[in-house]
Design a protein that fits this description.
- By secondary structure, the protein is α/β, with parallel strands linked by helices.
- It has two domains: 118 residues, Alpha-Beta Complex (Aspartate Aminotransferase, domain 1), CATH 3.90.1150; 275 residues, Aspartate Aminotransferase, domain 2 (3-Layer(aba) Sandwich), CATH 3.40.640.
- The chain contains 15 helices and 15 strands.
- The strands form three sheets. The chain has a seven-stranded mixed beta sheet, with helices on both faces.
- The radius of gyration is 21 Å and the shape is globular.
- Bound molecules: 3-[O-phosphonopyridoxyl]--amino-benzoic acid and pyridoxal-5'-phosphate.
- 3-[O-phosphonopyridoxyl]--amino-benzoic acid binds next to helix 1, helix 4 and strand 14.
């Protein structure tokens, strides 16, 4: 149990300090309890608690949307506010379908995701997502969904620093789907630029470019799910900037408010936005929206968060720290049970060999031992995933990997 937090640390109920190696759940990119964000929330709660987002507005939602647009990749001009990554995904999928319909191409209804993709827990997200256990309990899900293969090629790419060489051609599977179904039936492809939740799968060199080229050529929208990669995780505002490949829609959440208040957003190009904006004033443009879209207190937290990132130069800081992070992480190569190490920006993964017949147990033991030694890590399957707040110091990077090295040597 965590009872308080400050900067890089959590405090437990029994008064121990735990170094945050995961930015909470990939979301507290500026570290914990940042004064500007705390003050903004207090002040907003005293001024305007809630305003409807249907027909009515309030200044902070527009201020945040403007700040987000200014930070967003070139061409991303419009913002739709949600309350989580999962809602951002549902929103983006619905915008994609409605966009084609508004354009007279309502037969474009097919959605394409990817194996080992994670797009939250709602129906659209689990349908396009590729995590078997997240899907198997919940019925037949959306129809008309296909999945590209995962880009994870452990035999060819293990222990690679940064982007792997092999696998760009996996994007060509989309051509097979186009040949099979007809491009005119496909609405959108959704992928995480870097798959986070399923164990940090880095896109092979050229893969995202190829996906962009094929989608563009066939009038298919490309959605980048940047719920984890947004807000500096790779040392750039968005993965879109980092990879230099621009999708049609970007989903984000988590770091938008530093994890402090639930909020997400979908960013879109004018082409998509404008397709809905040609009716008379009194009619609804897009039949979608949440009670809490653009909530005033969340908006205030978002503004203060984006200001904190800019004022402290945190995205640049992440970029500068990335080589140190990479070296420290790959220093674990050769330790017992370590079968792969992957990294990009301030993300790292250490894949462990599973205990025969007991998958996930070895990584879970690591998690418990690290917690006891004062470091918070995250595990998924037998993979340790790391994503510290971008304020991390080099000595704290050393602390994470020294602790893990000690634990790996101790494990059976
Ligand atoms: N898309 C992506 C790419 C995500 O990583 C979501 C959508 C859903 O966001 P919400 O806010 O609805 O949770 C996510 C969330 C983990 C972990 O351990 C990752 C997430 C959530 C919880 C745990 O890797 N990512
Ligand atoms: N269910 C009912 C009965 C509702 O009235 C509403 C919203 O008005 C919702 C669900 C959706 O809730 P939210 O807008 O918080 O997502």
């Amino acid at each position: 149990m965590f009872v308080s937090a400050e900067g890089m640390h959590y405090q437990t109920a029994d008064n121990r300090q735990v170094l945050d190696g995961t930015a909470g759940l990939w979301c507290c990119n500026a570290g914990h309890r940042r004064p500007r964000i705390v003050e903004a929330i207090k002040a907003q709660a005293e001024e305007l608690d809630y305003a409807p987002a249907f027909q009515i507005g309030h200044p902070k939602a527009f201020e945040l949307a403007t700040k987000l647009r200014d930070m967003a990749p070139e061409g991303m001009e419009h913002v739709f506010f949600t309350n989580s990554g999962s809602e951002s995904v549902e929103t983006a999928l619905k915008i994609a379908l409605a966009y084609h319909r508004a354009n007279g191409q309502g037969e474009r209804t097919r959605l394409i995701g990817r194996e080992r993709g994670y797009h939250g827990v709602n129906f659209g997200g689990i349908s396009v997502g590729g995590i078997t256990n997240n899907r198997r309990m919940f019925g037949s899900l959306l129809t008309g969904v296909d999945h590209l293969s995962s880009t994870h090629l452990p035999d060819q790419n293990n222990f690679v620093k940064g982007m792997p060489e092999h696998g760009a051609d996996l994007a060509d599977e989309l051509l097979r789907m186009i040949a099979l179904h007809g491009a005119e039936t496909i609405a959108a492809v959704i992928v995480e630029p870097v798959a986070g939740s399923t164990g940090v799968l880095i896109p092979p060199k050229g893969y995202l470019e190829r996906l962009r080229a094929i989608t563009e050529q066939h009038g298919i929208l490309l959605i980048f799910d940047e719920v984890i990669t947004g807000f500096g995780r790779l040392g750039a505002p968005f993965a879109t900037d980092y990879f230099g490949v621009t999708p049609d829609l970007i989903t984000c959440a988590k770091g938008l408010t530093n994890g402090v208040i639930p909020m997400g957003a979908v960013l879109s190009t004018p082409k998509i936005h404008d397709a809905f904006m040609n009716g008379p004033e009194h009619l609804i443009e897009l039949f979608h929206g949440y009670t809490y879209s653009g909530n005033p207190i969340a908006s205030a937290a978002g503004i203060a968060t984006l200001e904190t990132y800019a004022e402290d130069g945190l995205f640049e800081r992440a970029n500068e720290l990335a080589p140190y992070w990479e070296d420290a992480l790959h220093g674990l190569k050769g330790l017992p049970h370590v079968i792969d190490i992957r990294n990009i920006g301030l993300i790292g993964a250490i894949e462990l060999e599973a205990i025969p017949g007991e998958p996930t147990k070895r990584a879970f033991e690591c998690f418990i031992k690290a917690f006891e030694k004062g470091v918070l890590i995250r595990t998924t399957g037998d993979i340790i995933a790391l994503s510290p707040p971008l304020i991390i110091e080099k000595e704290q990077i050393d602390q994470i990997f020294d602790t893990l090295a000690t634990i790996l040597k101790e494990l059976d």
